[in-house]
Every structure is written in C-alpha cells, then in structure tokens.
Amino acid sequence: MAAAHREGTHSSAVRPRSYQDESYLHGFLGTVSDLQKAGVLQDVVLEVEGLRFPCHRLVLSAASPYFRAMFTSDMAESRQKTVVLQGLDAGMFGEILSYIYSGTLHVSMDKVQPLYQAADLLQLDYVRDTCSSYMAMNVERSTCVDLYKFADVFSVDSVLKACVQLIHRNFVEVASSVEFCSLSVNQLTEIISHDELDVKEETAVWEAVVRWVQHNREDRLHHLPNILPHIRFNLLTPYNMVAILDHPLVSEDPGRSAIRNVVKETSNMKRRVGMDTLELALLFTESTKEMLWMNPGEGKYIRCHYDICPVAGSVTTDNDIYFLARESSQKHALFKYNHVKNSWERKSSVRIIDASDGYPPSDYLMEIDGELFYLIVTSSPPEVVLKKCSQRTNKWQTCSPLRHDGQLDSNVAVSCNQHIYIFTRTQLYCYDPKADQWCRKSWSKHIPEVYNAVAIGTEIFSTDYDLNKTLVYDTEADSWHELPGWQNTGYGIENISLFVLENKLHAVVNGYTVGEFRDVWLVCVYDRCERVWKELSILPEGRWYMFDPMFPVARMYMPHLNTQGTASTEGANGE
C-alpha cells in the first residue's frame, strides 16, 4: 500500500501538457490548396453563371456556414454531384474559392462591392468585414456617393458613416458631381437633413436639390414637396427666398401652392455647421503653451491655452488638424485636434533625430492624399529623414532617403500638388509619394536664400529673409517667376513667416520700429491685382514663434472655439 501510494504521488506530480504543431497548422491549408489545384478527391461541382468549380464538400463546409447547412442537411443539394448557385458573380466566386483554399484575400476598389455581396451571401464573416474595412479606409470624393449607396443598401454602418462624414465636409463639391444625381430621394433627404452640412449659405442646399430634380425632372418633380421641408428656408435672405419661390420648379408646378406652404412652415431650424465656421491661422508662442487663432482680415484673435508645445503642424484636406509635440528626448507625440471639444487627442508617437552639433533639427508635418508625412532635416550631420504614418495602424514607416549635396544648414519644406518640396541654399528637391522617389527640380538664382515657402494651388510662393523678393515656383511647369517685394515703411526685420488664409498670401513680419527698437508683429497681405504687399494689422502682444515657421490654417467652428483647451492622451500607439 505504501509503495502504491508513493507511486501515485509521483505520477500526479508530472502534469499533462498539450503540444501544438505549428508547421502542421500552416502546412495543412497548403496541402488542401495543393489537392484543389491538382483536382484530387473533389466530390462536388459548384456551377456559377455557367462556369464549373470542382471542390471538396468538407473544405467548403468548414469555411462557410452557408455550405455547411447545404451539405449536412436534408436539402437536395446535399445529394447532388453538381450544385447550381444563384445570385453570385462567377469572377467573385473564384476569388472566394481562392480565399477558402489559401487563406489569402485579394481586394481592390473595382471588385470590393461584388466581393462583399458574395461574402454576405455565403456567410464568410472575415471576407465581409475585410471588405467593409477596405471600403471605409478608401472613401474619397470620387467614390463617396457610390460607396454611400452601396453601404445604405447593405447596411454597412462603418462605410456609411465614413461616406456621410466626407459628403458633409465636401457637400458643395460632391453635390456638383454626376454621381450625386444618382441618389434615391430617401438618400438625398437623409444627407441634406443633417446639421453637419458644411455650407456657408442654405442656397447651396437648394441648388443641389434643383440639380437632382432636373437630372430626371419627369420622374422626380413630384418628390419636391417631400424634399423641401429639409431645406432651412428660415436661414435664407428675403431675396433668396423670393428667387426660390419664383424658380420654374416651384412656379410652374401644379402643386405649387402646397410647396409654398411647406416653404412658409420651415422656420426656426438650426444653422448648419459650415455657416458658423471661419478660416483661422494658428500661431504658437516661444516658451508658453498659449496659442493664437487669428483671421486679421476679420479682426478675429482668439487666445487658447493647451497642454502641448507643438514643433510641427498640418491641416488635412478634410480639415483635420495634426500636431507633433516633443514628448521626450527621443520621441515626438502626434496629436489630433477635436473640433467639438476644442482639445487635442494623442494618436501615436514617432522617433526623432538629435543633431550632433546641438542645433535642433527642422521638423515639418505635411499631408498628401490622406497620408501624414513627418520630415526631419538636420544640418550636422546633414541628413533628411522622411516618415509616413499609416491611417489604419497609426504607426510610422520610413520612406526612401534623399541623396543631397550636403548643404542642409538652411532649409524650407512644403507640400504642394501631391508632392513634397525641400528648398536648400543651392537646390530644390521633390519627393513623389506614389513612387517613393526623390528628384531634383529647377533652382532659381534670383533669390540668395529661400527663407519661407507656402503653397497655393499648384504654385509655391517663397521669400528671402527681408521680404525684398517674392518668387513663385510653378510645380507643373517646373519654372520660376518673380513678384515685387514688400515696400518696407520704417521697420527693421528680424523674422518672417508666410501663410495662406482665404486663398490669399499673408506674412507675419516680426520686426522693430526704426529709431525706437520696439518689437512689432505686423501682418501683411499680398494684393495679386495690384501686385503689392499691404500692411493689414498688428498682432496682439506675445512672443510668437517664428523659427521653422508653420501656421496651420483650418476652418474653425466658432461656437466650439472656447478660450481654454486641454489635450487628451487617450488612444496612444507607439512607433
């Protein structure tokens, strides 16, 4: 008994374990794929649009609840050698089979919608979810209406939300497209009913409705009385109201009395978001966390305090504002501005480069085609590093290096026409994100040193240190021309920063009055008609940051722009 007891105690001390053969798990699917390619052990033929696909019932049943129900129930298909599948595209079914046998899914914009439909029918959750994520990440102005209609029909909420946001932000442009006229009446009214519509005047909504109706007037005119309640006539001027009532769509329609009643009854409706926005440029201070939102032409100067000190900033085409702020000696943190909360939310972090000579590097943050790029330029050692942030993962990857002539102690960078340009003392370099390549462009000898650069359309405007010369580089023609400089009227200049506000070239001139040596922060605007710089206003008192200048310009919703703000650090990801 004692021996038996000791033996039992010894055996119970050795715990059983489970072992997993990783090579078997990975190799099994490859073996199944090889059997399919070789046409071995196939026991059913699926026919789609007349094309035959020999397959394995076991594999299909393991991959799809749709096939599992078909082959394991009393359905007639469970006993048939050939099963005809309806409602599927043969090409997409081939892609589905490829995924089932390989685990690899190939997705592109031209086939993502039929691929989603096939996955939805066959109950392949991974394929369906991957397609919806792919569509949501690739919503653009040219595709948003088509994707919106698809997402509406199939109730793909993530895609629907992304499309609605883009349509609201770019309503005037989207509403001018032919695709907009293909919306159903319910889709149209759903879009124009939102407060988030970015329009300056309600007439833009009326004009969009007119285009939609006239695209197929005979079939759509009777919908007008149901559409009009979604137009906010109380926001129109009396002149515009009369113009609408006298419009042929209203005045010539037999039911115009009913329409007039609808117009009269739409009162006290809220203003659209775009009606309370104003384009503002953002300035930083040298040592404090105060920032200044400004529109000198409108006399607007709003001071805010945020818990970050930016080193680089950018505004995307979708009006999202991003900042890089120093987080440690080795990293910067990327922040995104929350327009509603007037606060900054931390998104990720990125490694930085410390120059060996002690001079801080030049940091630039730019957006191209929906992607954020972080450009770091150091003078000693002379080095250019470009990193791109993935929209999907918020992680940074390094782009191709720039082979330069070694003179980087003076540099200015700007994004223009879907490219990045770097000005040095002797060269102009251009980066193409699609090709991930750098090249040299024509250099102008008419300016000894580019001190500032800013883009308007496909042109880059640059100045020298004293604003005596203003040169324009045409990115499409790869050519330069010169504009008159500033006719200085008694100021000594210390620093200059260019920015573009309401499509006009502006400059902040940090100088001093001659004879008094009193600091002045002067805003100038370039009048393209008269070809002269004009003094516009003087900035409020403050030590505004003017080195490696960057004045992000964005459309700001004024009711949300309070006097205080605090940055959030939620949702942070590392490099």
What report would you give on this structure?
- This protein has three domains: 28-137, Potassium Channel Kv1.1, Chain A (2-Layer Sandwich); 144-271, Serine Threonine Protein Phosphatase 5, Tetratricopeptide repeat (Alpha Horseshoe); 274-560, Neuraminidase (6 Propeller).
- Helices cover 28% and strands 30% of the residues.
- It contains 17 helices and 27 strands.
- Helix 3 (57-63) packs across helix 4 and helix 8 (144-154) packs antiparallel against helix 9 (157-169).
Write down the overall mean pLDDT: 82
Low-confidence stretches: 1-7, 563-574
Under the CATH scheme, which architecture of the largest domain would be assigned? 6 Propeller
Quaternary structure type: single chain
Give the biggest beta sheet.
Answer: 4 strands, antiparallel
How are the strands of the biggest sheet laid out side by side?
6-5-4-27
Kindly name the structural category.
Answer: alpha+beta
Q: How much strand?
A: 25-35%
At the fold tier of CATH, the topology name of the largest domain is: Neuraminidase
Provide the domain count: 3
Question: Which key phrases capture this entry?
Answer:
globular; 4-stranded antiparallel sheet; Serine Threonine Protein Phosphatase 5, Tetratricopeptide repeat; disordered N terminus; alpha+beta; disordered C terminus; Neuraminidase
Offer a concise description of the structure:
This protein has 575 residues and is an alpha+beta fold. It folds into 3 domains: 28-137, Potassium Channel Kv1.1, Chain A (2-Layer Sandwich), CATH 3.30.710; 144-271, Serine Threonine Protein Phosphatase 5, Tetratricopeptide repeat (Alpha Horseshoe), CATH 1.25.40.420; 274-560, Neuraminidase (6 Propeller). A 4-stranded antiparallel sheet has the order 6-5-4-27, with no helix packed on it. Strands 7-8-9-10 form a 4-stranded antiparallel sheet, with no helix packed on it.
